[in-house]
Amino acid sequence: MSLHLNDAPWAGRLISLLPVTLVMLLTFPVIAEEQAVFRVCADPNNLPFSSEARDGFENRIADLLAKDLGMPVAYTWFPQRMGFIRNTLKAKDPTRDGYKCDVVMGVPHNYDRAITTEPYYRSTYALVYVKGRGLDDVKTVADLLSFDDARKQGLRIGVFERTPAAQLLAQYDFYDQTVAYQTMSGDPAAYPGELVEKELVAGKIDAAILWGPIAGYFAKQAKDVEMVIVPLQSRPGIRFDFSISAAVRHGDGDRKKEIQSALDRNAGAIKALLEEYNVPLLPINSGS
Length: 288
Hints:
This protein has two domains: 38-121 and 243-276, Periplasmic binding protein-like II (D-Maltodextrin-Binding Protein, domain 2, 3-Layer(aba) Sandwich), CATH 3.40.190.10; 123-231, Periplasmic binding protein-like II (D-Maltodextrin-Binding Protein, domain 2). The longest helix is centred in the first third of the chain and has 17 residues, at 11-27. It is elongated and about 65 Å long. α2 packs across α9 and α2 packs antiparallel against α10 (267-276). The protein is built from ten helices and twelve strands. With 288 residues, it is α/β, with parallel strands linked by helices.
């Protein structure tokens, strides 16, 4: 004798539940999985890298990668000073399950507080001065360092404290010519490019030595004056060139691979963007 569905002791209960189940399926929409978002940790006032207006080159590279990966971009803004990683990449989001943001677009390659992609550009510190103000014969850093005491007299070179630029001037006895600025100002409106955009243009300093992307961008933006950029080559005991990567949290290897693939696919567009922002570029060396 065969057993039909209606003969089973649980059949009646199952059948009685079917209409309720159908009603639930029709009444309650299926909850879709949360859309993946390209969450970027960035400084809101740090051109040429990033800004809240999203017009820095790191903002535009983030847009490229997010479009490639089919994601919208969202930002967590925090000044890129002490505590940046702790308050962004490693900070839990109180409004949802996860971290505030997942990628920093520009850090030194092999940065120890995160895991990094392969470098997507390499640049160097650069000397920048206004053409026609007495330094036009300086074509290399060696030209500057060869100045005799008479020519050094009264010369003012702006640098940030505790940078390779400050180390260079100290090593070659340019103490009296050094005008040192704070690396981390307490003013949230301050930005590194002020050395070029304000101090150098106004003649408060005769030259500045800055990280290449900053020097190149603000030199290009200058109005009414023509700027000269002199990229610096590393010297014994002083390194000026650095490779730059994107970074994610330790343990987030899958995201790193995803971002690396997008960087590789967009390498040509990224190089063109960097050139648009007048970044002094060197051949990429993944070992540094």
